[in-house]
């Protein structure tokens, strides 16, 4: 459902009226798809089904494709389909870089870092968190900075470096209170 909403919101902001009519037909198609797949277990399976269907229709629309790929990666990750999630994050990251969308790039790097952290690949996670944190600080994205600091705290705690973990958690909490 979130995949459809993200694409719909993006289309409403960026497309002329004749394209919105096409979008209305696509939303009607997606409504049918939603009913076809009610038998699937859980909302993540439905999100993946819809996300893949929407991705097949967003050829040439890189902004929508980037958003859908990012949401799809989250659903795949929660379903335990880690390799597929990583491919979708890589796709969205490439599109964000091509569009010079630093805010999205920073968020995607933190998401990729969390994926690596969950797979106990600390070096790759650390590199992703450092990149996401650097971008967030450079552009002033405090929410992403807080998320990155919290994620680094989880990584440090898993490594047994509790004092560093506490420092990152405290910084993330201070940012959350600011926001």
What descriptive keywords fit this protein?
single chain, 179 residues, mainly alpha, 85% helix, globular
Characterization of the model:
The radius of gyration is 18 Å and the shape is globular. The two termini are 27 Å apart. It is 85% helix and 0% strand. α5 packs antiparallel against α6 (102-118). By secondary structure, it is mainly alpha-helical. The protein has helices at residues 2-14, 17-36, 42-57, 62-78, 82-98, 102-118, 122-139, 142-158, 162-178. The longest helix has 20 residues, at 17-36.
Number of helices: 9
- Total DSSP E strands: 0
Indicate the radius of gyration in whole angstroms: 18 Å
| Cα separation of the termini | 27 Å
Mean pLDDT: 79
The main pleated sheet reads as: none
Shape: globular
Task: Please estimate the helix content.
Answer: over 70%
Low-confidence stretches: 1-15, 27-41
| Structural class by secondary-structure content | mainly alpha
Helices and strands, in order, run as HHHHHHHHH
Strand content: under 5%
Helix/strand layout:
Layout: H1 2-14, H2 17-36, H3 42-57, H4 62-78, H5 82-98, H6 102-118, H7 122-139, H8 142-158, H9 162-178
Helix pairs in contact: 1-2, 1-3, 1-4, 3-4, 4-5, 5-6, 6-7, 6-8, 7-8, 8-9
Short recap of the structure:
Helices cover 85% and strands 0% of the residues. With 179 residues, the chain is mainly α.
């Amino acid at each position: 459902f979130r995949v459809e909403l993200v694409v719909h919101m993006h289309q409403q902001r960026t497309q002329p009226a004749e394209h919105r009519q096409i979008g209305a037909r696509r939303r009607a198609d997606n409504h049918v798809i939603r009913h076809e797949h009610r038998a699937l277990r859980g909302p993540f399976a439905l999100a993946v089904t819809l996300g893949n269907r929407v991705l097949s229709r967003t050829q040439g629309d890189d902004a929508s494709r980037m958003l859908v790929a990012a949401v799809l990666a989250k659903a795949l990750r929660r379903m335990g389909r880690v390799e597929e999630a990583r491919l979708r994050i890589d796709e969205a990251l490439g599109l964000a870089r091509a569009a010079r969308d630093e805010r999205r790039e920073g968020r995607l790097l933190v998401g990729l870092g969390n994926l690596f952290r969950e797979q106990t690949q600390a070096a790759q996670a650390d590199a992703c968190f450092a990149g996401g944190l650097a971008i967030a600080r450079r552009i002033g994205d405090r929410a992403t900075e807080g998320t990155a600091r919290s994620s680094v705290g989880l990584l440090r705690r898993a490594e047994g470096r509790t004092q560093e973990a506490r420092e990152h958690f405290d910084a993330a909490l201070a940012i959350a209170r600011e926001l």
